[in-house]
Prior knowledge:
Elements: E1 9-14, H1 23-32, E2 36-41, H2 52-59, E3 81-87, H3 89-97, H4 103-114, E4 118-122, H5 126-129, H6 132-143, E5 147-148, H7 167-173
Parallel strand pairs: 1-2, 1-3, 3-4, 4-5
Helix pairs in contact: 1-2, 1-7, 3-4, 3-6
Bound molecules: flavin mononucleotide.
Amino acid sequence: MTEQAQRPFLYVVVCAAGIAADVGRLITAAQERDWEVGVIATPVAMNGFFDTAAVEARTGRPIRSAWRTPGDPRPFPPPDAVVVAPATFNTVNKWAAGLADTLAVATLCESYGLGVPVAVLPCVADALAAHPAYQDSLVRLRGMGVRFGEPYSGEVGEDGVRPEFGWETALDLLGRR
Length: 177
Ligand SMILES: Cc1cc2nc3c(=O)[nH]c(=O)nc-3n(C[C@H](O)[C@H](O)[C@H](O)COP(=O)(O)O)c2cc1C
């Protein structure tokens, strides 16, 4: 009997931005590209920002948001890649500063040392993105090899339409079709 090849494992880190309600689109797209997906959400994101039951049904795994209890097995296999979408102002700044106070940020901080590729789609309003700390965070994370999608403010354009959030860009940035 031939052994089935294991699919690569993708961590999808979800932060508390309004656009997170559509994160199912990213998960479906990743699965269509043959990724196995596990979701890690920030504690705030777990509080009504997306349909957690639908995501768990879609991935077949519980969403992780807190650290496991010592002695418990690791709930997910190690990641082959990580996508952060949407990424908030708060999480991007904490990540760059190495302030690992949520499982989501700790996972991102650790990815650098593990050499795991990370792609990020920030959703940050222009007024926040102008803050020098945020600009410094982008420079620092890019210097660590983190791959960023186009800036996205989540704001409605002059035509009264909110631009599409490029969920699939995150997967393109990982270079796997
Ligand atoms: C309805 C709503 C939408 C929000 N959207 C965004 C957003 O698009 N980008 C952002 O950086 N923060 C947004 N925030 C603020 C974050 O939720 C807040 O900064 C939070 O502390 C982020 O936590 P996290 O980075 O741990 O997920 C939003 C808050 C609310 C209540």
